[in-house]
Specification:
Elements: H1 2-38, H2 42-48, E1 50-51, H3 67-72, E2 78-80, H4 85-98, E3 106-109, H5 122-126, H6 131-147, E4 152-153, H7 177-192, E5 203-209, H8 228-235, H9 237-244, E6 249-252, E7 256-257, E8 260-261, H10 266-276, E9 282-284, H11 289-296, H12 301-311, E10 316-317, H13 321-331, H14 337-353, H15 366-372, H16 376-389, E11 391-395, E12 408-411, H17 437-444, E13 451-453, H18 462-470, H19 482-494, E14 498-504, H20 523-534, E15 539-544, H21 552-557, E16 560-563, H22 571-579, E17 643-645, E18 649-650, E19 654-655, E20 661-669, E21 675-685, E22 696-705, E23 710-717, E24 724-725, E25 731-732, E26 736-743, E27 749-756
Parallel strand pairs: 1-10, 2-3, 3-4, 4-5, 5-6, 6-9, 12-13, 12-14, 14-15, 15-16, 19-27
Antiparallel strand pairs: 7-8, 11-16, 17-20, 18-20, 20-23, 21-22, 21-26, 24-25, 26-27
Bound molecules: beta-D-glucopyranose.
Beta-D-glucopyranose binds next to loops.
Amino acid sequence: MKKYRLIVVTCFVIAGLSVNAQTGRDAKMNSYIKALMSRMTLEEKIGQLNLPTVGFDITGPVLSKDVEQKIEKGLVGGLFNTFTPDAIRKQQDIAIKKTRLKIPLLFGYDVIHGHKTIFPIPLGLSATWDLPLIERTARAAAEEASADGLNWVFSPMVDIARDPRWGRVAEGAGEDTWLGSQVAKAMVQGYQNNDLSKNNTVMACVKHFALYGAAEAGRDYNIVDMSERKMLEYYLPPYKAAIDAGAGSVMSSFNEINGVPAAANKWLLTDLLRTKWGFTGMVATDYTAIMELMNHGVGDEPMVAELAIKAGDDMDMVSEFYINQLKKLVESKRVDVSYIDQACRRILEAKYKLGLFDDPYRGISNDRAAKEIMSADKLVLAKEAALKSMVLLKNENNILPLSSTAKIAFIGPMIKDQRDLIGNWSGAGDWKKAQSLWDALQTQYPTNNFMYAKGAKVIDDTLLLNKLNRFGANILPETLSPAQMIDEAVAAAGKADVVVAFLGESCTMTGEASSRSDLSIPEGQKALLKAIKATGKPIILLLMNGRPLTLAWENENVNAILETWFGGTCGGDAIADVLFGKYNPSGKLTMTFPRNVGQIPIYYNAKNTGRPFSENEKFTSKYLDVPNTPLYPFGYGLSYTTFSYSPITLNKTMINASDKLEATITLTNTGKFDGEETAQLYIRDVIGSVTRPVKELKGFQKVFLKPGESKSITFTLTANDLKFYDINMKYTYEPGAFKLFIGTNSTNVKEADFKLTL
Ligand code: BGC
C-alpha cells in the first residue's frame, strides 16, 4: 500500500513538474512574442499572414510575384514549394539579414508520402494496417524534409472518402473513421516526434479541414452538403485525432459546407476547431482559397478577405488578399485589429515552437542533407512499406507465388515504368531513382530469360492524353500502333507459360483535380488484357493505381490479381519479392472496391434500410442490374497461406459501463507459408435511439504465424467504444443488445452477442 502511495505521489509530482515546465515554457514564449509584437507595425503583422509560393509544384494560378522583394519588405511569413539547404538559406537570409525585425520564415511543402525517399501513396500505406510502420515513414520523411530545409509539411491528409471517383482518395487512409483516426495520429507523431524544437522534426498540417473527401459526385473541389450527425460521426474524428496528437497547424479546405465555404466558415474554423476542440495552433488556407471565395459567390475582394480573417484563417496561401486588403479593412474599421494580432501571434508561436527564433536555419547543411536523404535505412523502410502495402485480391489455385524459372512474359506499360511508380504528390522525389519492376527483375534474377512487351500505352484516348500531358504526365507517343503493340505482346505471351500483366493508371490520373467518372482500367490496356486472355495463357494481373477500380471483368477472367498501388522508390523491388514468394502479401483494403461506378458511394459501415435486400422479394433495397455487395469489401486481402478463425469466446455476455469485455479467438495458419494476418474487430449496436451502421470497426491486431501455428488473440472493449451521437446529439452509449464480429475482412467474420447494462 505504501509503495502504491509512493508511486501515485511520484506520478503527481512528475505530472506537476511537467505541467509547471509547460506553463513555464508557455510563459516564456508569450512574453517573447508579446515583446516582439509590440515592436511590429500593422503592415509587418499582416506580412506574417502571407504565404506565397516560390519554385514549382503549383496547384493553381501562379500569383506569387516578386517574392524576394516582398520578404525584404516584411510582407511574407512563410514560403512553400522550395527546398534544399542552399535555397532555404538564401531565402531565410533575406528575412534574417534584410528585414527590420529579422523574423524567420516558415518553409512548407507537400511532403505527402515521403520527401525524397518515396513511400507508397497514403492509401497504400493505410493498407498495411501497420501504425508503427506508418509512423516510421512519417518520421523518415521528417528527417529528410528537415535536413532539406523544410520545417512544415502539408500532411497528413485525413479526409475520409467513400467515393473513389475523387482522385484524392490516393492521399488519404480510406473510408473508415476509426482507422483513419489512428493513421492521422501516427503520422502527426512521426512528423513532430513530440518536440518541434528539435531540428529533425517538422510541423504537421492537418488537411483539408473539413469534409473535403465528401465532394459531391466525387468531383474535386465540389460542394459538400452534410448533416451534423454524419459530420460528427464519420468525417470529423480523424481531424480531431490529429489535433489531439498535437498537430501544429490545420489547412482549411476548398469546399463549401452546407452553403458556407470552409475558408469563410466561422462555425468550422473558430466555433468548432478552437472553442469546442481547443486547438491553439495556426490555420492556413489551401491554395488561393481566399481568392476562390469570390467564385463561390460570397463577396468581392475586400469582403472575402474580411470573411476569411474573421472566420479564423490565419495564413493566406497565395491569394495575397490579406496583404492587399487587411490594412484598409482595419483603417475603415471593418476588421478589428485584434483579428490580425491573433493570427499573427499564432504564426509567431508556431515559429517559436519550431525553434526558429533560436536558429532560423535549424542546423541545415549540405552534409546533413547528404547523410539523411535516401539513406540506406530509409530505403529499407521504403521497401518494407511497399511490401506490406500490397493487397492480394485473387489467387486462383494458388498460382502465386510464381517460380522464377517459369517462362514468363512481362507485359504492360507499367513493367518498365519508373515515373508512375512514385505516384502523385512526390514532388521532391526523383523518379529516376525508383527501381522499375523490370530493373528489379534484372537485378534479382540476372540470368533468367524473362520476356517483355509493353503491349499498350497507359492511355490511348487522345482527349484524355492531351489533358494529362498538358499538366506534366509525359505519356509519350509510341512508334508502333496500338494494334502492333498488342500483336507484339500476344507473340510474347504465346511463348510463355504464364503472363504477368502490369496495368493501371498513370500517377497523374489520381490525386488533385483527377476525378474520374469511369473507374475501369483504361480502354487500350483493357484491349491488351483481352487479347492476352484469348491466348489461353494464365494471367497474373498486377495493378498500379491510386483508387479502387472497377474490376469485375478482370476478376472473372484472370487467374490472380495483386494490388500494388503506387509503391514508391522501392516499389519494383517489392513487387518482384511478392511475385516469387520472398514475401507473402498481407495488405488489406481500406476502401471498398465497387463492382461498377453506379454502386458508388459504397462503404462497409452502411446503415440497414427498412427493406433490406432479399432474393425472393421484389420490393427490397437493391439494384436490378448489380448485386448490393462490393467486388472486394473493406478489410479484404488474401495471403499465400490461409488462416482459420475459431468461434469467439467472451469473458462475459453482459457488461456494465465500467466493465471490460474480452473477446478471444484462436487464429491458425492452415496453409503452407509463413504469413501475417490482420484480424479485425467490428461491432453493431442492434437497437439505438438513432439507426446504427451494420458494422463499425473498433480494433484490429496483426498476427504473424508459421504454418500450423495457432495464437489466441484477445480484443478488449469498454462501454466507451460503444458511444455515438444519440437522438439528442449527446455522445454516449445506450444499453441494449450488441453484436461483436471478428474476422479476416468486413464481411467474412465470426459473430457473438453481448449486452450493455447501465
Ligand atoms: C492542395 C493542398 C496542397 C496545396 C499546396 C492545394 O491545391 O489542395 O493539398 O497542400 O495545394 O500545394
